């Protein structure tokens, strides 16, 4: 009999049936993928690996013998914050396709700011015919916060498109063509030089609220912010204050403290804010399920567990 692998998606997921079908098909030669709510008591007790997608941590805790969980999401802050330290190991989705998709989004929205598109949209609305001064990519510095899988791919794509690129990470790093910083001093150094700041660090206890008024005031005057990581990393009140007094020029926000963004949020109407509905790098079903199937097959055949999250660091 093939082992049963539970699938535990978030309660509100509208994609659960699609994932269930895709994972079921891809893993069929090695395992039976079964939705959490259909597991028998025995299957709950014997499962040692589960596939999760931003699940309710209480559902994961209801599988007491899990050794590890494979996330379909790259961001696993809810699991790292709420699962006990001695709970199952957490494996994030590491899909090269996702890095490619994210770097495309970073390039697209960097170009949107770089080519003054928000301002031309306002000019059209106000029937203003006026050319703005054009800068070349070489004259713009883009600072990328986070040089992991997504940040590195994005920094390299920006650099290949002619931008001067700075990067920032927790530990010291070298990346071809990227000027790398680390530490608090490094952060202020990067912020002070960047025309566009792209946030791609994970949400951890260290990065929560990391960009507040002190850091935003430390940004170059007229800089724009692109947050593609997680909402709580950026203090939105401090951001709006910096936009309103003209210190920052624009913000492209794909992630928020509360998602979906509530209809009452002032961000919807703010002239200097572009709101996106968490779309910069969605998980691609086809490539992600192949990676998940490969990981789970290796575990079932040899007991090998893929590289997992460091619970002390939170990512
Ligand atoms: P990685 O774990 O590969 O990289 C994280 C990077 O952030 C590393 O360079 C790490 O430094 C750096 N970092 C972590 N903590 C700190 C800190 N305290 N100070 C400075 N740097 C820090 O993550 P990914 O690149 O795969 O993903 C980044 C995030 O993107 C995810 O956590 C997720 O939240 C978000 N995301 C958003 C999506 C969207 O659609 N909007 C889609 C997918 C992911 P070091 O290299 O030294 O370890």
From TrEMBL:
CDD domains: GDH_like_2 (cd12164). SUPFAM superfamilies: Formate/glycerate dehydrogenase catalytic domain-like, NAD(P)-binding Rossmann-fold domains. The keyword NAD applies. It comes from the Bacteria. Gene3D superfamilies: NAD(P)-binding Rossmann-like Domain (3.40.50.720). Its EC number is 1.1.1.79. GO terms for molecular function: glyoxylate reductase (NADPH) activity; NAD binding. Keywords: NAD, Oxidoreductase, Pyruvate. It is an enzyme of class 1 (oxidoreductase). Signal peptide: none annotated. Residues 109-280 form the D-isomer specific 2-hydroxyacid dehydrogenase NAD-binding domain. The keyword NAD applies. This is Glyoxylate/hydroxypyruvate reductase A. The gene is ghrA.
